[in-house]
Design a protein that fits this description.
Elements (H helix, E strand, L loop, with lengths): L7 H7 L4 H12 L5 H21 L1 E6 L4 H4 L5 E3 L1 H10 L4 E5 L2 H10 L4 E3 L15 H10 L5 E4 L4 H4 L4 E3 L4 H10 L4 E5 L2 H11 L2 E3 L18 E3 L13 H10 L3 E5 L5 H6 L2 E2 L2 H10 L4 E5 L2 H10 L21 H10 L8 H17 L1
Parallel strand pairs: 1-2, 1-3, 3-4, 5-6, 5-7, 7-9, 8-9, 10-11, 10-12
Helix pairs in contact: 1-2, 2-3, 3-15, 5-6, 6-16, 9-10
Length: about 375
């Protein structure tokens, strides 16, 4: 389940009776990651948001990459894409405010089409989602007829509508294995190049990229192989991490445990101690004791873990923030509720077709 009822401090902040009480609680939770002058300013925003969302019967969903001052104060549910998708499908709130990027808010709308879904920042996009279009998928389906399409949840609704099953970083390999077990020797896997390569490595499946050398489904011995058919999309955050980054950290801090998101390159994943979704990384830090940790993912998540687990030493060598996630602020979240602005709307036929691919993802788990 997403982190909600387990965090008493966040519940206290959300139920604070005044701005002063909100500030005092925020200091207790966030003083090690957020400057006090910033807390003093943002306490009033957090208090107003928490008052207004109750009045409007709204729920706020926050991805693990949200800034700490938002993540730990106003969010009702916190998690990765898969966790928040499950919550989106079940909530009975009148309004869903999605503190994430557009494809996440679209997913919430697809799974709960009768609810009003708001995205606090109009231009909160995603480089990975923008790397492929619905027409690209249609062309691949025409080139490889009958081959099932698996699309990463980091895609826009029209791409999901052309997809057989969606996946997240936490269940991508499971989805591919599911299709293989049902006789599908080939799977189109879109759009993340590195995630596809990491899934191929985990499952022992050959991978090709259409239009590039080495696109044969035959191995060097001339035998037919199972294959993933990939795409060349990349996350603009995770592609920046290198093996050299890991080597430099280990020279300074040899006992550091390095955790990499599977959107990092296969070389980075192989050089790390652990690779998993944002939820898996958070759980690892909570449950596996180590002298210190380095997360190779969006930087705000490291701050969120540090705030929740002050006894864990998180190396602050990361300077990579997602420019799209960074657009979501407390100011915009308040404005979104006050003005009901930046509502997600989608055509009914897109919702219906995309819903089928998401439902299959949720069924597989």
């Amino acid at each position: 389940m997403a982190r909600h009822f387990k965090d008493n401090m966040i519940d206290q902040i959300q139920n604070a009776a005044s701005i002063e009480e909100t500030l005092a609680l925020m200091r207790r939770r966030l003083s090690n990651v957020v400057p006090d002058f910033e807390l003093s300013y943002k306490a009033e925003l957090a208090f107003k948001i928490n008052q207004l969302k109750r009045k409007l019967h709204a729920v706020i969903l926050a991805h693990n990459y949200m800034e700490p001052a938002l993540y730990h104060t106003v969010s009702d549910y916190r998690g990765d894409s898969l966790e928040l998708a499950r919550i989106s499908a079940k909530t009975d709130a009148d309004i869903i405010v999605f503190c994430g990027v557009r494809f996440m808010a679209e997913t919430a709308k697809i799974l709960n089409p009768t609810r009003q879904v708001l995205l606090p920042a109009q231009k909160a996009g995603c480089s990975l989602a923008a790397s492929i279009t619905a027409n690209d998928v249609r062309q691949l389906k025409a080139r490889y007829p009958g081959v099932p399409v698996v699309s990463y949840v980091n895609t826009y609704a029209d791409v999901k509508a052309e997809t057989d099953i969606c996946c997240t970083s936490s269940n991508a390999a499971k989805v591919v294995k599911y299709l293989n077990s049902r006789g599908h020797e080939r799977v189109i896997f879109l759009p993340d190049e590195y995630l596809a390569k990491n899934v191929a490595a985990e499952t022992g499946i050959h991978i090709i990229f259409p239009g590039l050398p080495g696109t044969s489904f035959m191995n060097q011995a001339g035998n037919f192989e199972r294959a993933l058919i990939g795409w060349r999309g990349r996350c603009e955050v995770h592609e920046k991490f290198t093996v050299e980054d890991i080597e430099n950290v280990r020279r300074q801090f040899p006992d550091t445990v390095v955790l990499a998101h599977p959107e990092c390159s296969p070389e980075v994943v192989k050089a790390s101690d652990f690779s998993g979704s944002t939820k898996a990384m958070i759980d690892y830090v909570k449950n596996v004791s180590a002298p210190r940790y380095l997360l190779l993912t969006e930087c705000a998540m490291g701050d969120n873990i540090a705030a929740e687990n002050p006894e864990r030493e998180m190396l602050r060598l990361c300077s990579v923030r997602c420019p799209h996630m960074n657009l979501i602020t407390l100011e915009d979240t308040l404005a979104s509720l006050e003005k009901r602005q930046y509502e997600i709307t989608l055509p009914d036929d897109i919702i219906k077709r995309a819903r089928a691919s998401l439902d299959r993802m949720l069924e597989i788990g």
